[in-house]
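INTERNAL AUDIT FORM
Audit reference: QA-55
Scope: verify that the stored structure record matches its stored sequence.
Auditor: D.O.
Record contents follow.
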Amino acid sequence: MHGWNGKLLRVDLTKGKAVSQEYDASFAKTFLGGRGFAAKILWDELKPGIDPLSPENKLIFAAGPLTALPLPSSGKLLVAAKSPLTGGYGDGNLGTHATVQMRRAGYDAIVIQGKASKPTTLYIHDAKTEFVDAKDYWGEGSLQTEKALKKEHGTSVGVIAIGQAGENQVKFANAVSQGGRAGGRPGMGAVMGSKNLKAVVVRGTKTLPVKDAKAVKTLGLEAYREVLAKPNYDFWKRQGTMSVVEWSQENSVLPTQNFREGVFDEADEIGGFAMEKIKISNRGCPHCNMTCGNVVEDSEKLPSELDYENVALLGSNIGLGNLKEVATLNRLADDYGVDTISLGNVIGFAMEASEKRLVDYRVEWGDFEEAKVLAEDVVYKRGIGALLAEGVRSASKKVGGDAEKLAMQIKGLEVSGYNCHTTPGMALSYGTCSIGAHHKDAWVISWEVSVGRESYGEAKVDKVIELQRLRGGVFECLTTCRLPWVEVGFGLYWYPKFLKAATGVDMTMNDLFTIADRTFALMRAFWVREYADSWSRNMDVPPARWFDEPLTKGHFKGATLDREKYDSMLGVYYGKRGWDNRGIPTESSLARLGLRDVAEELGRYVKLSV
């Protein structure tokens, strides 16, 4: 087998054992890698209904056949498990040297089960795996933990760690690497904490087994040059995703005061140009020549790496217009190992619930000092923080009354950085995302604004599916970063060429789309199996606020989503996906994707349409 190592590392923390397991070429060609591997393993090996924070859950770190090769932005790693936040399939990706080291150690994925008897660091060095006492690191933040582990094991190792949020099993804790690169917002850090797994440290010395090393090198050099030559490259290097703040403000989609508005009076103070004034350096992932990590000096004179999502959710969404203070909240979140998007959501929820006197807690919009205290209370589950640490879906239900109207979530995952009062296509993207309300699978909003946001027609459904296939399917399975294509227009035609050079397997983009559709159907089946008793199309409906509470500011003052038109659009989406009117894949569509065994298993829990 070329391109793929053909091996997984199976780790049982309870037994303190690790074994290498081979997989065959048919598995590789069917699921490709990354998200495809993770979804298949979790579907096959988890019993429905298990507690996500129990030893029975499995934590997966997975790469794809292009990961770690000298190709543009190939330094990505997928982390997946059953989500403690949503109860469904959960994953995320992050750029990390750990993915390069894992592949060089001879593995395409690490599958971890059980629970260590005490805080533990997993140290993988090629074929050798050690279970190292982590008591000295337990209680430390992720940033300090990584520094200490690199001092202990050498600066070339890859490290993925959790902070105090993961240790305390905050439901939206994530995994952190490289001083602030975080992934797994549906609670992958909490799963690590539940297993007493403080960190994974990886060192590999092997050469990746590509089919045509000369072609990989040649293609890589040509591709890197193309990225550098793109017209938008220089501006991208200056601002990265931070320019989206101004774009979102201009188009009335910037989440403001818990998503009740789409414009923020102080947007200019937290945007890309404001960021440039306090920027001190750039950071990037392995094998990337369009580094997007904008490092600034925060209000406590410490470095903080900013991007659009954390600034939107910890800035305008909580009414905070001081970028250095936003940067401080972001750095603290990274060190605690807690997702910045969900943290900004729960703080915004608390501020609005306080304003409306729904909770016995007082915090004002834009209060930086109280937001810092609240973030720490979430991480350590103190006072109202214990409630918020469960996520806004759970918190709003426990508060009761009108509080559920303030919970900006879909399937239990807090909404990322776009207000969708006026963008039905993006609302559909959120509604049908494979992990909950996240933009990663189909960032359709830019296209939608350019072609007309008023439409609920078939073209938008087609575009959402197209982007889900590309962003949430092809890139997540290969496993490489989508940003060269998204942000500077790097050609998609490169990827089949990369794949053939690496693996010898000749796949067209349509072949890759089939794998993407197979993976999406598998993740949807996982959700349906977990929610069999209560599943309905309401699971794919955005927050009520976007339908019921008009915007009061900006060019689109008075606008809302149309509930009936959205529901009609959702039905069209189901039809194109081969799902029934409940949003469940039909028996025939699963069979067409080579998932007859999945149909048989799913049919034990829900009645499938033919």
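Auditor finding: record pair retrieved intact. The mean pLDDT is 97.
Action required: none
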